[in-house]
């Protein structure tokens, strides 16, 4: 499965799982095979996109899975799922999907492949309580795995939490922070003083460097 999907599966324990934008269907099929969900709803934007998931379910002998074509969470009825996985989209796209969601009392497991700070800010501003937000490494890439639930209470985020989540002491997060520190240093070196974008990036660099120094 890989470290990213293993981390997602480890957080699933529900009656009805909705795997939104399911791609190959590995999360839905894996959750059923491991007994982490009683039934699954696997969705994607087109019937063609769902074919790989259908084939995997057939190959693995999984039948408690329903396939639906549709955009985001629009294919779910209110309160139908008690756990929702959205992996493989960008942070901006995930935020857009959540914004248009029907009423759901569900745990959300979100794995953005970019724009994670934007998604974290959206969650805080829109009343999502975060249970866990860890960075997971797989090969040369790093993925945030965010577990949250709509609580209705807005939160404020520190810059560090916005950039790296809630588990900055984890080894994978530290490795990602070192990579980010190096990248930010290169970018900032090429930006003139007084540039608004440059000041924002320098602030991110300072916060990252200070957090890494505290680990030593």
From TrEMBL:
It holds the Pfam family Methyltransf_18. One of its GO terms (biological process) is methylation. Keywords: Methyltransferase, Transferase. InterPro entries: SAM-dependent_MTases_sf, TrmK. Coiled coil: none annotated. The keyword Translocase does not apply. GO terms for molecular function: tRNA (adenine(22)-N1)-methyltransferase activity. This is SAM-dependent methyltransferase. It comes from Candidatus Caccalectryoclostridium excrementigallinarum.
